[in-house]
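seq:
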Amino acid sequence: MKRMFFCLMAMMSVLSLSAQSSIYDFTVKDDAGKDVSLAEYKGKVLLIVNTATRCGFTPQYKELEALYEKYAKEGFEILDFPCNQFGEQAPGTIQEIRQFCTANFDIQFPQFDKIEVNGVNEHPLYTFLKAQKGFGGFDTKDQRGKFMDDMLRKRDADFDKKSDIKWNFTKFLVSRDGRVLKRYEPTDQMSDIEADILTVVEDMKK
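struct:
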């Protein structure tokens, strides 16, 4: 009976996800707790990021802000979703997180309420994103990539076979028509991400 119940729940989740076939079908809460439809971002190139304020990758906020300032006028947006699931490295309220990010990195891009990106309480947006682009692995030739691979493999030998978000600062690039184009792990080079953003932004002008 229990197995049947979980199968039914899984089937309902798949059906619900298939009914939401576009990123614009999702609603999120901003840093003031107000509902925001992602349909408001139609026509924009998006980089969706789960972040944390006490992580080794937290300095990426500076690089993200630089990207935002460089390409915002070209129709580029960064959507920031703080998440406390990885080492509890995003503590505090969203207001405290916003204050920290403003004071330390002067971020100007939209920051939304804290969410979960994995597990039973994960936000449907992330269920969708992970279904569109699964985990592609860490570059183990890179020192940071090897460190992350070793750390996560000790916890779960099959971690790389699952699409779940592995750590803070995982990123998804979304086209102006809502297609999820690419997923980046926190160890991926920002220069490579910028090159992809530039390509998509330039496509907007054609």
